[in-house]
Structures are given as C-alpha cells and as structure tokens.
Design goal:
This protein is an alpha+beta fold and 52 residues long. Helices cover 33% and strands 35% of the residues. The chain has a 3-stranded antiparallel β-sheet. A hairpin with a 4-residue loop joins strand 1 and strand 2. The longest helix has 10 residues. The protein is flat, with a radius of gyration of 13 Å. The protein starts with a strand and ends with a helix.
C-alpha cells in the first residue's frame, strides 16, 4: 500500500493507493509539502518476500 501525505497550513490530507505507479503519478500532480510512503504489514508475506 502507498500513502501520500500532504501538509498545508491548516490541515493534513492522506491518500491511499494500491500500487506504486498510481501513487507516483498522483504525487507529481500535487503541489505543496508532500510525502510518499510505502506501508508494509508484517503479515503481508507476498510483499515482503518480493522486495528482499
């Protein structure tokens, strides 16, 4: 799962994506202070094994 966190003066918004491509495309279109994070759960063995 991929999360974009956007900080502004008055609030924080978070957007959740299932794949990296969609998250990166949206990330490019958002202006302001933003962070792109990947969330990996310990019980999600398919994701953990494919990356290491």
């Amino acid at each position: 799962m991929w999360i974009i966190t956007v900080h502004s003066e008055k609030n924080i918004q978070m957007f959740e994506f299932d794949n990296q491509e969609e998250a990166r495309a949206t990330y490019k279109s958002i202006k302001g202070c933003k962070f792109l994070s990947e969330v990996i759960y310990y019980n999600d063995f398919d994701v953990v094994e494919s990356q290491y």
